[in-house]
Amino acid sequence: MKRTTATHITRPTTTTPMEPIDTLLTRRTVRKYAQTPIPQEKIDKILEAGRQSPSAVNRQPWHFILITDQSLKDRLGNGIFNRHIRKSAFTIIGTYTTHDKISKRWGLVDTTIALQTMAIAAHLQDIGTCWIGDYNEQKLRETLNIPETTSIAALITFGTPQNTPAPKKKKPLNQILHTNTW
Ligand SMILES: Cc1cc2nc3c(=O)[nH]c(=O)nc-3n(C[C@H](O)[C@H](O)[C@H](O)COP(=O)(O)O)c2cc1C
């Protein structure tokens, strides 16, 4: 069977609508943002996509911090690999509580799913995103008043793409897929 891969699919220049699955396969990390405001309805859809995400035993252990304030973005975006926080329209920090055994075991997975669902919801609305693992946990806690009982999963920046980044080289399926047994 001939397989197509995401790297072969790019956004068309025509106005022909893409199939949702092909749109999904054009997702790339976007680090350069045009300073165009994002309509509130689009932001609401992104947040709703996170809120509706699956979680183990439906515990929904997540708390999201939406950063829109420019001075906060400037303070958070002072690392080597996170400077694009500054130019993002907004940045979301995914955190989760670990009050019970289920959330301790699955909170990170739950919150990661919710964050990536938000990233996909953004992409489907022509908003670019970048995951950020480059942050100083203690500084983030202090700056945003995150309680010690709450863990941080990661950050994602959101903004209107200034460019269409080239697809990253991905491992071929035959190196990563094992069918029925390893
Ligand atoms: C958990 C995680 C942490 C990441 N941290 C950063 C980061 O701190 N800064 C950054 O510029 N990109 C970061 N990235 C983006 C990756 O570099 C990017 O996803 C990877 O190069 C593949 O590119 P693609 O998303 O376009 O397929 C991170 C991605 C993930 C999933």
Beta-strand percent range: 15-25%
Number of domains: 1
What is the CATH-assigned architecture? 3-Layer(aba) Sandwich
Report how far the terminal alpha carbons are from each other: 21 Å
**Helix/strand order, N-terminal first:** HEHEHEHEHEH
Identify the overall geometry: globular
Query: For the record, what CATH class applies?
Result: Alpha Beta
User: What class, by secondary structure content?
Assistant: alpha+beta
CATH topology: NADH Oxidase
The low-confidence runs, each spanning 5 or more residues with pLDDT under 50, are 1-7
Helical segment count: 6
CATH superfamily: NADH Oxidase
Number of strands: 5
* Largest β sheet strand count, sense and barrel closure: 5 strands, antiparallel
Mean pLDDT: 93
Instruction: Give the cofactors and ligands.
Output: flavin mononucleotide
What is the helix content? Answer: 25-40%
Give the topology, please:
Layout lengths: L19 H5 L8 E2 L5 H12 L10 E6 L2 H7 L13 E8 L3 H23 L4 E5 L4 H8 L5 E12 L11 H4 L6
Antiparallel strand pairs: 1-5, 2-3, 3-5, 4-5
Bound molecules: flavin mononucleotide.
The site of flavin mononucleotide (FMN) has 12 residues, from strand 4.
Structure explained in plain terms:
- This protein is α+β, with helices and mostly antiparallel strands and 182 residues long.
- It has a single domain (28-163), classed as NADH Oxidase, CATH 3.40.109.
- It has six helices and five strands, in the order H-E-H-E-H-E-H-E-H-E-H.
- Strands 1, 2, 3, 4 and 5 form a five-stranded antiparallel sheet that branches.
- Helix 2 (40-51) runs antiparallel to helix 4.
- It is globular, with a radius of gyration of 18 Å.
- The structure holds flavin mononucleotide.
- Flavin mononucleotide is lined by residues 28-29, 31, 81-82, 130-134, 154, 168.
- Flavin mononucleotide (FMN) binds next to strand 4.
